[in-house]
Amino acid sequence: LVVGPPKSGKTDFCIDQVFRAAGDPGTKEFWYLVPDGYYARYIRQRFAKRGGMLGMHAATFGSIFREILEKSGNPVIILPEVASQMLIRAAVRQVYTNGQLGFYAGIRDKPGFISALQSRFAELKRAMINQAALIDYSADKDNATQELAHIYSHYQQILRNGGWADFEGISWLSVEFLEKNPDWNPAWEMLVLDGFDSFTPPQLKTLKLLANRIPEIWITLPGDRRLVEGTPPHSFGRFAETYQDIGALVSIEEIIHLEPLEWQPQLRFLETHLSRSEEHTSELQSPCNLVCRLLL
Question: What is the C-alpha to C-alpha distance for residues 155 and 202, in angstroms, rounded to an integer?
């Protein structure tokens, strides 16, 4: 685990670890995971400037989920967003035909309703809530919740029958494969998780299932020594839960603390006050005062 405030060199440290362990170019495989594609492109540029790239992958969690499924020998067709919406629309029609759609019947054909369902289903999948669990939960709830559960269940059934997965669904399939194949080894030399301030349940579960299959895993977190000691300042308080989540799943063998660089007074003020609750920021009075303090 690498802990340090912003601009303390966490990414530099992790890239150094990759090149330390790389040895001969192309003989080992490394995965450097970041939150988004822009950051991944930046890491690839950093790799290239140091003369490396072969076997070094900078990507998001979605890429590693796809990699696991491809290496499993059971790849699935990952549907684009438009195709996913078409299947959701088909699920809505089926639920309506079955007489299970009343509350949402009047808007069942509206594009906005389909888009809203797609967003809600993505949230459910990020929380690893399957259709059976949602059906059980909705049994004694209002009509709206029950109808949502029926549509979700039909949508999932359509995906499984067709051998398809939507973007969020590939995380489920990856976790499922890792759970059913505890002896499977991806043959990766190192896994780095850099730039995350929180993790979804599928991401955490994947981390747990890979922990004993990869020689080295490095994770960065914003914060300082107080984060690890359980007394983080307000500005880093929200990362304490992420640290606890990681510690509950995997054995943290080493913690590297990186010291902060000397910040300008304006940045130090922002770091101190931005994440504090309203009762601790009464002296700011308004966002305008915060801006004025930063500019002075």
Answer: 20
To 5 degrees, how large is the angle CA 193–CA 172–CA 109?
Answer: 115
CA distances from 220 to 83, 194, 272 (A): 36, 5, 21
Q: Would you say 164 and 79 are in contact if contact means Cβ atoms under 8 Å apart?
A: yes
DSSP tag of 36: S
Q: Which of 216, 267, 197 is nearest to 13 (CA)?
A: 216
How far is it, in rounded angstroms, from Cα 125 to Cα 114? 16
CA distance 107 to 185: 48
Give this prediction's pTM: 0.81
Element (H, E) at 8: none
- CB atoms closer than 10 angstroms to residue 239: 19
Q: What is the pLDDT of residues 231-264, one digit of tens each?
A: 666 666 677 888 888 888 888 888 888 876 665 5
C-alpha–C-alpha distance, residues 8 and 13, integer Å: 10
Rounded to whole angstroms, how far apart are CA atoms 53 and 42? Answer: 13
> Given this model, what pLDDT does residue 163 score?
87
Closest CA to 30 of 189, 163, 225: 189
